[in-house]
Specification:
The chain has 341 residues and is of the alpha+beta class. The chain has two domains: 152 residues, D-amino Acid Aminotransferase, Chain A, domain 1; 160 residues, D-amino Acid Aminotransferase, Chain A, domain 2 (Alpha-Beta Barrel), CATH 3.20.10. Helix content is 22%, strand content 31%. The protein contains eight helices and 17 strands. Helix 6 crosses helix 8. The relative contact order is 0.15. It binds 2-OXO-4-methylpentanoic acid.
Length: 341
């Protein structure tokens, strides 16, 4: 186990630090899901012919535990992660976990790794549940064997420079995912295709890339690892969940906070390239990203610079409200916060 003292707690960033333990369950066709429980954090082994290594049959989740102002350890809408994990499992032909196992596993990992829980100023404990096919299957078919793992690691800000206004690219060179494929699931393969676009845009000095919808290039899809919102006046828009969009939990929370606490008109519908380029504010949402503002968007070598002062922006208001709920700085009007121990 990594020593707590080896971690730079004031500059956590978004990295995988070794922690104490992780939770494991395994599935075989004969025995179904069998719980092994907490095991030391460490490497995993599997068949070289496993479906995760050969064909990407794997899914994951991301959620966070927070040390709050009330000196409690809480999670945020974790049942939503459990539900999305079930829906991703179905799409990737991974056997469903028994009722309650996901939530129990998250609870146990947080409790056993509570030494690694940052303070509010430092960040949060990021929790990563995974399920993948690890039995041999040379043909392109679902595995007979699976592993469910949950590990956790302390994190700070997802974007390298903290809360910078992101310089972004709307790319017409790559798509993220086909519209009727696995975009709505949290499938590992959805992220692999974004690595090269990201490498290319960072070499040009950009921070984030937004993709166009692969069936209709007049509308946008999402970013690498976050949903996209566009504010114009009192109207907030984000792409509808039409198949290629990940049903983000921060996305859904943003919609509710914007509608109910800030009286915005919120629409889940097609967001056109024109909407995006003419917005007053554009921001990204995700568990890792939280709510991150765009400072500019580049499209076909034209740059749109957002003029709004971040400190006076609606983006900041929404971000601060979500963070205040998560860290129990204010009463949670939605019942989203769940005590973890
Ligand atoms: C998250 O926001 O938690 C995600 O899972 C996105 C990720 C790929 C960093």
């Amino acid at each position: 186990m990594m020593n707590k003292k080896d971690i730079d707690w004031d500059n956590l960033g978004f990295y995988a630090h070794e922690t104490k333990s992780m939770f494991k369950a395994i599935y075989t066709a004969e025995e179904k899901w069998q719980v092994e429980g907490l095991i030391p954090y460490g490497d995993v082994s599997m068949s070289p012919a496993s479906t995760i290594l050969n064909y990407g049959q794997g899914i994951f989740e991301g959620t966070k535990a927070y040390r709050t102002s009330k000196d409690r350890v809480v999670g945020f809408r974790i049942e939503e992660n459990a539900a999305r994990f079930a829906s991703s499992s179905e799409r990737l032909c991974i056997p469903q976990l028994p009722e309650g196992l996901f939530l129990n596993a998250v609870q146990e990992v947080v409790k056993d790794n509570s030494d690694f829980l940052p303070t509010q100023d430092q960040g949060s404990l990021y929790i990563r549940p995974l399920a993948y096919g690890d039995g041999p299957m040379l043909g392109v078919k679902a595995s007979n064997n699976y592993t469910f793992l949950v590990y956790a690691t302390p994190v700070g800000s997802y974007f390298k420079s903290g809360l910078k206004m992101l310089d972004t690219i709307l790319t017409d060179k790559y798509h993220r995912i086909a519209t009727k494929s696995i975009g709505f699931a949290k499938a590992v393969g959805n992220y692999a295709g974004t690595l090269l676009p990201y490498k290319e845009i960072t070499m040009d000095g950009f921070d984030e890339v937004i993709f166009l919808n692969s069936s209709d290039e007049n509308i946008i899809d999402e970013a690498r690892s976050a949903n996209v919102f566009v504010l114009k006046g009192n109207v907030l828009k984000t792409p509808a969940l039409q198949g290629s969009i990940l049903p983000g939990i921060t996305r859904d929370s943003t919609i509710k906070v914007a509608r109910e606490l800030f009286d915005l008109e919120v629409y889940e519908e097609d967001v056109t390239v024109e909407d995006l380029l003419n917005g007053d504010e554009v921001f990204f949402t995700g568990t890792a990203a939280v709510v991150a503002p765009a400072g500019s968007i580049n499209y076909k070598n034209n740059k749109v610079q957002f003029e709004t002062d971040y400190n006076a922006s609606m983006t900041k208001k929404i971000r601060d409200k979500l963070i205040d709920i998560q860290y129990e700085n204010i009463e949670d009007p939605f019942g989203w916060v769940v005590p973890l121990k």
